[in-house]
Amino acid sequence: LFLQKQVSLTQATLYCRRCCCLLCCCLPSRAQPVVQYLPNFFFGALLVVFGIEIAGDWLVRSYAKVTRAEYVLLLATFVAIMELELEKGVAAGILLCTIYFAVTYARVSDCAAPLT
Questions:
Q1: What CA–CA distances, in Å, run from 56 to 35, 53, 60, 62, 75?
Q2: Terminus of the chain with fewer CB atoms < 10 Å: N or C?
Q3: Is the pTM of this model over 0.70?
Q4: Sign of the torsion formed by the C-alpha atoms of 57, 58, 62 and 63
């Protein structure tokens, strides 16, 4: 179709959108799920991209946003999740954060000046 006559980029884009819309409307109507048409490496690559993005957000870009002690807690939680299972690692992170909160809260002194 595109090779037989001159088609502008806008017309080609509209044609591609119509084909994609038609494909998306027709595939779900069949009894087979759409997932069967996608190769397995697509899902693996998607998980890798999400993992890199989350690790970048939590481990790299958060360094400047939190205190040093909180960053150490973040790294300890990450290591616990990697070494243990996900649930046990998250539980260890929650336990460490609870201990950190209790210690820092215990250090807070009372009001500087009593109410008179």
A1: 28, 5, 5, 8, 13
A2: C
A3: no
A4: negative
